[in-house]
Write a structure and sequence with these properties.
498 residues; 3-stranded antiparallel β-sheet; 7 strands; 3 domains; 3% strand; mainly alpha; 73% helix
């Protein structure tokens, strides 16, 4: 996307006051490009990951193990956003944390590019760690470009920023996916490292346009807190090293020794976080009530993401083995399916924004609860739709690509109903004490959903079986209907939030 740099009449000292990026502070261009390249590397690698895991020329794993690894990786990315935000707030500050995160991500992709199983898993860990650090802090810096929450340009700035996410997500499977599938898997992973390297370079070159306080550590650790944190980290690291050394030396080590603890953490930690907030006696009655309502949204969102994120694993593995990946006789790489969602987001998001505004003017805009329930029903409907290509494949035929595109389309409409609403309701219902942490709590819903998928795969559940797909679809639809049926109760718990 080309920059639109013009003179701005903002007061001196405002970040980006001399030039603007589509009427916004110039620093938005830096963050836009950083996020675009980071998403380019992330989604490109993600599109290749399940295909590489099952490919005879790749890891050669079965579909269940590949789905488990993919799901654990995604759950870790979102699980690490909370410590990532803490690290930015207490240790380095947002700007330095994003620079470090970009370097860690780039190193992770380079490690993935090495032709070794051991380094491959280390690379996944590095990318997950870097993504968690970056995701939590780059959005904070976007907000710092504006004069507080009442700045009229703020919402538009975030809209432009999120376009960068979808641009990177759209182009990466077309480029990285093609190279990885058609030329060499490891060259594809290396291209992801190049993309992140470009993002880090332009971030460092353009950082002078960012808000000055993006370099400030908001709540620096005291000397005592640093010492305590280091001691605890060293203790847990030591326990893990000793435990895995014992398992390894005893000859009992398998991949599940890593996958099972990580998936359990992905389910347990979100529950513990919600329980801790809900039981906090510092919250007043209104905040307690809102948290009770929020748990409804959280559980429903976990069900949504459990199904939605299988678009990159279960659906991709099915497409690789059982779909006719061609249009009018022209064949395309399986990874290209991962570009369908971002291009639909870019096309449909403005339509939805206009539609809600038009309904609002007439006093007919659906409530948050109705939108949320509808998103769940749609993601369930997408898996009912999945039953058709599964049936075709069971009959010994290849399913048409149009079936998969229809599934992704249905999921994208569901995402547009649920995801923006979830982000909005999270900020509105957050207790004052946890205002800066609640966005990380929202991401834990993704963690819980993906970890559940991982646990099912580890347990040997074949997620491409029609019976299992039908059960997941039914679960989502029932959850959506339940949210709608109990909407009056949830609305009462929400208090003044609408």
């Amino acid at each position: 996307m080309a920059s639109s740099l013009t003179k701005d009449s903002a007061s001196p000292g405002t970040p980006g006051s001399e030039k603007t990026f589509f009427g916004h502070p110039r620093g938005l261009a830096t963050l836009f490009m950083t996020e675009m390249w980071e998403r380019f590397s992330y989604y490109g690698m993600r599109a290749l990951l399940p295909l590489y895991l099952v490919a005879p020329g790749g890891m050669g794993l079965n579909a269940g193990t590949a789905t488990a690894i993919y799901s654990v990786y995604l759950s870790l990315v979102y699980l690490l956003t909370m410590p990532g935000g803490w690290f930015g707030d207490r240790v380095l500050g947002p700007r330095k944390t994003v620079a470090v995160a970009g370097a860690v991500i780039m190193l992770g992709h380079l490690t993935l590019a090495l032709p070794s199983a051991g380094t491959f898993y280390a690379g996944l860990g590095l990318v997950a760690l870097g993504s968690g650090l970056l995701k939590a802090n780059i959005s904070t810096m976007v907000g710092q470009l504006y004069d507080g929450p009442d700045d009229p340009r703020r919402d538009g700035g975030f809209t432009i920023f999120y376009m960068g996410i979808n641009l990177g997500a759209f182009f990466s499977p077309l480029i990285i996916g093609t190279v990885g599938e058609s030329v060499n898997w490891h060259l594809g992973f290396a291209l992801a490292a190049v993309g992140m390297g470009l993002g880090v370079l332009q971030f460092l070159l353009g950082s002078r346009h960012l808000a000055a306080h993006s370099s400030v550590v908001p709540k620096p650790l005291s000397a005592a807190e640093k010492s305590s944190t280091l001691r605890k980290a060293a203790l847990w690291a030591g326990v893990a090293v000793v435990a895995y050394a014992v398992v390894g030396l005893s000859g009992n080590y398998t991949l599940n020794w890593v996958l099972v603890p990580l998936t359990l953490l992905g389910v347990i930690i979100p529950v513990l976080v919600l329980v801790r907030i809900k039981r906090d006696r510092d919250l007043d009655q209104a905040e307690q009530s809102k948290m009770s309502a929020y748990i409804w949204f959280f559980v429903a969102a976990a069900v949504f993401w459990m199904i939605y994120d299988q678009g990159g694993s279960t659906l991709a593995i099915f497409a690789d083995s059982s779909a006719e990946n061609s249009v009018l006789g022209w064949e395309f790489p399986v990874s290209w399916y991962q570009s369908v969602n971002p291009v639909l987001i870019m096309a449909l998001a403005p339509v939805f924004a206009w539609f809600w505004l038009a309904l609002n003017r007439r006093g007919k805009e659906p409530s948050t609860i109705v939108k949320f329930g509808s998103g769940l029903v749609l993601v369930g409907a997408s898996f009912f739709l999945f039953l058709a290509p599964l049936s075709i494949a069971e009959g010994g035929h290849k399913a048409a690509a149009a079936w998969l595109v229809a599934i992704y389309f249905t999921q994208t409409v569901g995402e547009l109903l649920l995801s923006p609403v979830g982000l909005s309701v999270t900020t509105k219902m957050a207790p004052v004490k946890y205002a800066s942490q609640m966005m990380g709590v929202w991401f834990l819903a993704v963690t819980a959903g993906d970890a559940t998928t991982g646990l099912l795969s580890i347990a040997g559940v074949d997620l491409n079986r029609p019976g299992v797909v039908a059960m997941e679809a039914t679960l989502a639809v029932v959850a959506g209907v339940a949210v709608w049926m109990y909407r009056s109760k949830v609305k009462a718990l929400m208090g003044n939030v609408r």
